[in-house]
């Protein structure tokens, strides 16, 4: 507590949020927690003798209770049970979401006669794009997303609920619109961003380059083709496609460089303040996305230390940033991006310097840039690997060389993309610059595609549960002492943890492989039957089913959760209505 008090208190706060999310305390229990927290606060206020002995424990308990209380009040409760499934609705959009194969998607505020609520809208792709300047009216079908039947399925209903969204809305007939005269400042900004996105769509660059440009600068990946997204995912370069901490730091650096280049040294403090203000304006322009907010807060906290002439502490900055974000919205802790971004920074803090010891001396700018890119990439990937395996059940070793090769040039890519976006926004058409940019990005995308095609280094269907994740984090924690000093004692600690991990993993695998089960899955208005015996499973589906989608949405998650190594897909006639398994009859209709 004496060395990293803010980090420990932040962890206590996070544990309180998780505790409340799992147990869901009622009103009376929350009032009791409030009373305990108030009592502890009064003890601190009057500096009692008892407090001197138990200060650290009581502080941790108070922040644990604060996490419980704030998460209780941030929970979304529904009272819209009376909304009809079919009818005319009026709505305005609040955000554009990633499109599906058939539909464009939006977050919207829906107005009905009885109440207003948030919904995800599905609009056929052939329809005209919606914008922030209009109210819309249309016939629609409303439904609540269903809670999944099985534990291995993604709980989309819970995901939407964390974002305070309750309904899915499918627009059917013609849409009428009316010009709005009550646009908020944020909506005006988002409409201007939407206009620049449309300008990019009308440039002569290739479609993949246009989508890359919109994603890397304007945080708009809504129309990026699935093949490009898959390439970035498989190559471990998805952080380049989406706005992340690197982008914000580079944009901050551009503005700071220009200000310090053309101003006296005594104005350095004002250059920092202006640069921080600029990145916040930029964040507002691209819609205050979660990853952008995290990066801006962390950068702001870090430079506040600099302005106050205090030595910047990465863990303090990280902890304070996490606390600010979670106080504003406790649901952020369950966001995968939040978890991975903070773990990446922790990994860099914990492993980067120890890893640098094993590289040649960085006695030049290029050497320093290259070796730091290697160690930072390794540190971040090692720290996030357990969660990547837990959530996505896949990992590619090609991500290491891909990041080593591309990350050193990422600053140039971001700067070039930022310049192109400004020129397009100002309607300044330099066809030569556009051609050079288009060619450069096409080479980059081909290189990333080449990395993504390396199937020998790509591992999928990797089972991982929370116990194994915690064991891997323990392993990563003890890597630092070993890297700092390789000796028998540190080596044996690491060996023991590795052995413990494999014992745990083998135990869970044996347990799963001893079970047999039959499940019926809903898939595209049809039924899919899965029959598991030991470590093998067979999926039975109707003729002419989309096996690629079946594999991605049902087979792969199921195999990862049940630790299955052998999987096959077979078909049964469409006329089949029932199946008998272990004496039980299952309906396929």
What attributes does this structure have?
589 residues; alpha+beta; four-stranded mixed beta sheet; 21 helices
Textual characterization of the structure:
With 589 residues, the chain is an alpha+beta fold. The protein contains 21 helices and 14 strands. The longest helix is centred in the middle third of the chain and has 28 residues, at 365-392. The N and C termini lie far apart (60 Å). 27% of the residues are buried. The model has no long low-confidence stretch (mean pLDDT 85).
How do the strands and helices of this protein lay out in sequence?
Blueprint: H1 5-23, H2 27-46, H3 49-74, E1 86-97, E2 103-111, E3 116-124, E4 134-143, H4 156-162, E5 167-171, E6 176-179, H5 185-201, H6 207-218, H7 226-234, H8 238-241, H9 245-261, H10 268-285, H11 290-307, H12 314-328, H13 336-356, H14 365-392, E7 395-396, H15 399-406, H16 410-425, H17 431-452, E8 458-459, H18 466-477, H19 479-484, H20 488-513, E9 516-523, E10 526-533, E11 536-542, H21 547-562, E12 566-572, E13 578-581, E14 584-587
Parallel strand pairs: 3-5, 11-12
Antiparallel strand pairs: 1-2, 1-4, 2-3, 4-5, 4-6, 7-8, 9-10, 10-11, 13-14
């Amino acid at each position: 507590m004496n060395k990293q008090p803010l980090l420990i208190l932040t962890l206590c706060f996070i544990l309180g949020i998780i505790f409340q999310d799992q147990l869901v305390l009622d009103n009376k229990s929350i009032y009791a927690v409030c009373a305990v927290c108030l009592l502890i606060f009064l003890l601190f206020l009057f500096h009692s003798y008892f407090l001197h002995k138990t200060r650290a424990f009581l502080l941790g308990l108070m922040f644990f209770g604060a996490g419980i209380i704030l998460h209780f009040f941030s929970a979304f409760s529904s009272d819209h049970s009376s909304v009809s499934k079919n009818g005319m609705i009026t709505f305005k959009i609040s955000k554009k979401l990633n499109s599906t194969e058939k539909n464009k998607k939006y977050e919207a505020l829906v107005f009905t006669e009885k109440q207003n609520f948030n919904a995800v809208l599905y609009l056929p792709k052939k329809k005209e794009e919606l914008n922030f300047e209009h109210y819309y009216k249309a016939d629609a079908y409303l439904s609540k997303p269903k809670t999944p039947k099985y534990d291995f399925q993604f709980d989309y209903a819970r995901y939407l609920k964390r974002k305070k969204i309750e309904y899915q809305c499918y627009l059917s007939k013609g849409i009428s619109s009316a010009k709005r005269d009550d646009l908020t400042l944020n909506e005006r900004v988002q409409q201007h961003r939407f206009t620049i996105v449309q300008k990019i769509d009308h440039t002569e660059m290739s479609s993949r380059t246009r989508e890359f440009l919109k994603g890397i600068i304007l945080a708009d990946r809504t129309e990026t083709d699935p093949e490009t997204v898959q390439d970035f995912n498989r190559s471990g370069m998805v952080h380049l496609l989406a706005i992340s901490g690197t982008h914000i730091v580079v944009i901050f650096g551009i503005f700071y460089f220009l200000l310090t280049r053309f101003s006296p040294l005594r104005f350095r403090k004002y250059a920092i303040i202006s640069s921080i203000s600029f990145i916040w304006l930029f964040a507002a322009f691209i819609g205050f996305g979660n990853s952008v907010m995290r990066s801006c807060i962390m950068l702001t906290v870090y430079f506040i230390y600099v302005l106050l002439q205090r030595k910047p502490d990465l863990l303090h900055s990280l902890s304070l940033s996490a606390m600010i974000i979670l106080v504003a919205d406790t649901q952020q802790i369950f966001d995968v991006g939040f978890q991975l971004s903070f773990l990446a920074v922790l990994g860099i803090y914990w492993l980067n310097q120890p890893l640098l010891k094993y590289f040649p001396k960085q006695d030049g700018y290029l050497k320093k840039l290259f070796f730091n890119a290697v160690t930072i990439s390794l540190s971040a990937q090692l720290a996030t690997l357990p969660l990547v395996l837990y959530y996505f059940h896949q990992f590619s070793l090609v991500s290491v060389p891909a990041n080593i090769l591309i990350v050193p040039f990422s600053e140039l890519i971001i700067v070039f993309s930022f310049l192109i976006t400004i020129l397009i926004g100002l309607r300044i058409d330099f066809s030569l610059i556009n051609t050079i940019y288009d060619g450069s990005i096409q080479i980059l995308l081909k290189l990333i595609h080449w990395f993504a095609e390396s199937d020998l280094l790509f591992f999928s269907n990797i089972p991982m549960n929370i116990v194994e994740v915690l064991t891997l984090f323990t392993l990563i924690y003890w890597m630092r002492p070993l890297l700092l000093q390789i000796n028998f004692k540190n080596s044996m600690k690491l060996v023991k943890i590795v052995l413990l991990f494999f014992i745990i993993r083998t135990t869970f695998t044996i347990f799963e492989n001893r079970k047999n089960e039959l499940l019926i899955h809903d898939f595209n208005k049809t039924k899919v039957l899965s029959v598991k015996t030991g470590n093998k499973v067979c999926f039975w589906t109707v003729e002419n089913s989309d096996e690629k989608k079946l594999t991605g949405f049902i087979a792969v998650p199921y195999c990862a959760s049940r630790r299955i190594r052998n999987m096959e897909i077979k078909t049964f006639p469409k006329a089949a209505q029932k199946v008998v398994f272990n004496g039980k009859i299952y309906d396929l209709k």
